[in-house]
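Dear support,

We are seeing what looks like truncated structure output for some complexes. This example has two components. We would appreciate it if you could run it in full and send us the complete token output so we can diff it against ours.
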Amino acid sequence: MTAIRELRVLPPLAVGRLGAAAEPMDNYTVEVDPDHPLAPRQLRPAPTFRVDPGSGAITRADTPEELRFTDGQGKVRPVAPFLEVWALTDDDVLQPLTLELLRLNSLTPDDVRWRVRVGNHKVQRRTYDDNDRIDADTGWFSDHDAHELAGRCANFLEDRFLPLGHARYVKPTPEFPGIRLRFTPAGGHVYGSAYTDHPTDPDPNVVDFLYDATKGTWRGHADQAGDPRLTIPAQIYAGDDGPDDTWVSRGYLDDECDGLVHVKVEVSGRELTAFGRIGAGPPAYAPDSIPIRTVADELDQALLGPGVAADDTLEQARDVAEEVLRRATETVRLMNTEVMNGNTVDGRVDAASTMVRQDTADTGRLFEPIMAPSLVDAAAVLALHQNVLAALRSGTAPWFADVLRDHDEVGDLTAKGRRKMPALMRGADGRSLALTRRQVDLVRLAARQAIFRQDTDEPEVPR
Amino acid sequence: MAALAVAGPLDAAEKVPVLPPEFNWRDYTVMLLHVAAEIEHSLMVQYLFAAYSMGGPQVPEARRDDVRRWQEIILGIAKEEMGHLVTVQNLLTALGAPINLDREDYPWGSDFYPFPFTLRPFSAKSLAAYVVAESPETWSGPKADEVKRVAFESTGQYVNRVGALYSRVDAILKDKDFLPDALFHADTLPYQASWDEWGRGYTRGQRGQDSGNVPTVKSPELLVFGVFSRDSARKALHEIGEQGEAPDADLEDETSHFNRFLGIYEELTAWPLGDQGLVSRNVAENPVTEHRLNESEVAALGAAEVTTNPITDPVTALWGHLFNLRYRMLLTDISHAFRLASPVDNGGVLTGRGALVHRAFAEMYNLRALAGRLVDLPLQQDVPGGLRAGPPFEMPYSLELPHRDHDRWLLQRDLVQASRLLVGQLLSTDPSCAGDPYLIALRESDQRALDQIEHVLSREGCTR
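Here is the complete output from our reference environment:
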């Protein structure tokens, strides 16, 4: 019973990371060291596929002895994810699509066809001009060459495109028979825009001029105050001060993208299709740390709902509480807490873009630090988080549940509201960051339940 | 303490305080505030002990929400007592007096002490004593009589009201003839504790604004007042008194400790007796560690006998010592923080004060973690079904800090090193503790604390 009934692309969402090195990043796992539970997580090399640049086949899967995030010449190694095709066969088994399974269905690897479409619509999102959309489409292919993802845009200079990386159908072999595609993101470059009639002096910040500023408005664009379509905060693009408090775009473009990977196979006269999602983000410069609220937390909430689900156990809730605290500790480790709190640092009052500046700008509230200025010595804040993490490992209920910020408190500008956890950080809506509702609810579940546990073996005798 | 007794009766009729011999008014006020600090400290510890004892697998499923809610209320009251304790230190600082974080272990007293200090698990009887201690002067009627009777049986004496002491202090404070304006030192404010530093996420003057660990229990209202004048001193005392017993409010005022305790008492005593006995773990009263064994185990105060329970299980005893040590570290951190001024220039220069405040909060987490362990560990070895130990809360031999700041950091280092020895002993001598995740994490956090202290001692100043 091996007839293929349906296809899947797994993982359904893969996020790559930009990098200009020729060799993609090695595989690794991120683990907590049991002997040093307060230390940063440990990165451990894991089995890594090596793809032959000529043939496009996997030649070996070895575990590197050490991890290197650059090529040694200052170029970052991109994270280039593999997307595998899985088949649901008529015996209701979901299994990897392999050479053997193809053969049993009278197919060859050439019968598998791929198409990758990605886009970068950041400029169009600001100018609302559809001619500013940057899109790339490989068209259908079934060979094993690297297919460039060439981002085309109506407002680009003639014959120019934005390189968004490439996609490659990995050639299956008897040793590595799986059907998979590899997405390699772009180099992580920033490009500029120019007037065609009087080229600007080369800007050391950009690798190339792409955008024709006589056709489109991106160079010189300024978000218009009061436009309800603006992001919050607005003006988050490279620019300079313009007249009337405007923020004028320099016309930069980056080479991030996201989009879809399509696959299709005709089985017994029936065309089966599937797709997965890909994206490219910036390199991880603190790969041993995890932000306290991630896309994974959003997906968890989307899947299971905003509250504790019926089958969530106390142990899971405790694990979430500890993970939240660990990530908070990791975040503090990376923060200049004095600056982020709005302290006066070396005589400077408004030293950086912080929640304090955000509160000042949005509400006209006087610039005021969030925590007591004496409390934000970075080492002391880190030590406190580590101590709370240590206490949690005793099985104690997470005491901090009552200082977590709720989702509907992100705009609370009282001293107390601004000091709730997570503190000093901005959410996607320009207000104070909150954990997902599900994260908060799980921490509170752990806080409610822990006191009824019994750790010793001996049963306690009721009085 | 005999001086207190000759200073006049503690009732509403006392309009003009009487100065006892050997005092002038300022010194007498300082002495009364020292007593107040000890009472707030003692109440806080006893409430914490009661709260930590609550829970356990024997609590019937249907009762657990109530028990967890009550625990949260009592923990909230204990946190508010912490605010009272800190505010009293501010009062002392403003008057130019030394702060007082001391507290006698067993028994001690004067007319002002509500009842003999006793660490006892949560029950209707122990609760009755707390209700009476926090009650307003005007509380009377059949319910009051009943609760006072239970409190009497429970403590062996008539339970004094905490509010009486503050009434007397206020009677002195309000009179310029007793304390002239010049005695209130506004310039001590940078050394005093502030709500900004000690309040964390807890509400300032707005209890009931949002939910805490238990959705139906509002987060505590932590009162920390800076004192810089006669008015601010009286205001601080008034607010503390109001939070305790709500003297000016009617009994429906839910915010006072009195009303919160009474509410729990009424709910608990409405349960069947069998269920009432299941509300807390089988924790010993007044657990003490081994170094107390050569002292008398029974001490008498008036009609009350206070019995201590030595922790004789060797592993539990190590945990008990670790608890006492971390308790000492907490008190040392608070005391040390009072010696360092807070920055007055928006944080441009950081002192060690912020680090000490954080360390104090970290120790509160450690105490809670250790207490959670101790209420689950046997008091005695090889006694199946025997008493659990509970946190001993024993006072250190001294709370005096060295004169020079460098030497205070040496003391800090001593304490962390002592903790490392105990943690190492627990990890190496007892198989059940060998891989204990908390001990391993505590060992690591102590190492990091030592690194920080060495940084300070090397005269590189506050860590940055």
